[in-house]
Design goal:
It contains 13 helices and four strands. By secondary structure, it is mainly α. The chain has a four-stranded mixed β-sheet with strand order 2-1-4-3. Helix 5 packs antiparallel against helix 6, helix 6 packs across helix 7 and helix 9 packs antiparallel against helix 10. The longest helix is centred in the last third of the chain and has 84 residues. It is flat and about 135 Å long. The protein binds zinc ion. Zinc ion (ZN) binds next to loops.
Length: 371
């Protein structure tokens, strides 16, 4: 059994060779990638993409581009730091950058990034004499670096956008203020009780028979007075503590009110926009109904079929002898018929209904532009 396996391996080595298998595998992966990319991208209209780019502020584009570049650049440093950490500073930056970049690219696209990314790293670093254990360390350190960075960015984000979490802080302040007021009320009540006690004791003291009794009453009165002083001190303390809390709560409430005003205004604007769009939609639907009524049922069913197939784009202009939707060159005879006949004609490639606009003269164009 083993011998036959070995023979097969020898035969494979002699006749085909492992490097050829590797090339074939690489080619297969590239072809699959191209097909997948094509399937993802074929529905994207280049014109609308360009329109979207034109509609975006160029500063936003530059900033976005800079961040993307910086993001990919940082990918190349994970492995560099990890190599320095495990004591292999002799491996140059270009190798570390290649390993870091490709392992992340392959890892995140293939999935199971722990294994696939590790395999890519092993392939690159084994040429530099690193062991499996060392490559594992690199993978771990790169992951650690990533999460440290994540935690840092999260912290900075919280610092910057504290208002997002801020709603929780006035709540704490409000609770502290309520507790403060409750304790003050309790201390005030205690003080009243002590004051009542004192007045009662004074009444009793006036009826004291002996000096000893008198002193005992006096002693108790002093005790109550001390309790009142202590409560008063604590009340003063609580009042000074309450001041900043009060300011915070009032400020937060004002900010909340302001925010609510903004939100209400935003909601009103959104409702207005929705209503306007709904009106447009209703108008469009009504218009469509009247138009459909004038079209032959056969024509309409063809239109609906093409529209469903191409998700809404059922009609295309024939421009320069081409279908402007699929860019297929029309047969000269077909184009000739389209220009001359009144019949409905469909693109022979994509099936869209074609129309032809004869070019207007230059003078006509100018006249149309005059107000
Ligand atoms: Zn077409």
């Amino acid at each position: 059994m083993l011998k036959s396996l070995r023979d097969a391996a020898h035969f494979f080595d002699r006749r085909i060779g492992w490097s050829r298998l590797g090339i074939a595998l690489s080619l297969t992966i590239i072809i699959v990638a191209v097909v997948v990319l094509y399937r993802i991208l074929r529905d994207i209209d280049p014109d609308s993409l360009l329109d979207a780019i034109e509609a975006t502020d160029w500063r936003t584009l530059i900033i976005a581009g800079a961040f993307v570049t910086a993001g990919y650049l940082t990918l190349t440093f994970y492995d560099l730091f990890a190599l320095r950490t495990i004591g292999h500073p002799e491996i140059p930056y270009r190798v570390a950058a290649l390993a870091g970049f490709t392992s992340y690219a392959v890892g995140h696209n293939v999935g199971a990034s722990v294994f696939s990314g590790g395999a890519v790293r092993y392939r690159i670093y084994s040429a530099w004499g690193l062991s499996v254990i060392e490559v594992t360390k690199i993978c771990f350190l790169a992951g650690l670096t990533f999460w440290l960075g994540n935690a840092t960015v999260l912290g900075l984000g919280v610092l910057h956008g504290a208002w997002g979490l801020g709603a929780a802080w006035p709540c704490a302040d409000r609770a502290a203020l309520a507790a403060n007021q409750k304790e003050r009320k309790r201390l005030e009540d205690d003080g009243k009780v002590e004051a009542q006690k004192i007045s009662k004791l004074k009444d009793q003291m006036s009826g004291a028979k002996t000096n000893e009794q008198y002193r005992a009453f006096q002693h108790e009165i002093d005790f109550c007075a001390a309790a009142i002083r202590k409560a008063d001190d604590r009340i003063l303390e609580l009042m000074s503590e309450a001041e900043p809390l009060d300011v915070n709560v009032k400020g937060a409430e004002a900010a909340l009110k302001e925010e609510q005003k903004h939100v209400e205004a935003e909601k009103a604007r959104a409702r207005e926009r929705t209503a306007a769009v709904q009106k447009q939609l209703d108008q469009g639907k009504a218009e469509r109904k009247t138009m459909v009524a004038t079209v032959k049922p056969q024509t309409y069913s063809t239109y609906e079929r093409v529209r469903k197939k191409w998700r809404g784009s059922a009609v295309a202009e024939a421009l320069g002898g081409r279908c402007s939707a699929c860019q297929i060159l029309l047969r000269p005879q077909f184009f000739q018929d389209l220009r001359n006949s009144e019949q409905m004609m469909q693109c022979e490639s994509c099936g869209r209904i074609l129309y032809y606009n004869p070019p207007v003269s230059f003078e006509h164009d100018l006249a149309a532009q005059q107000p």
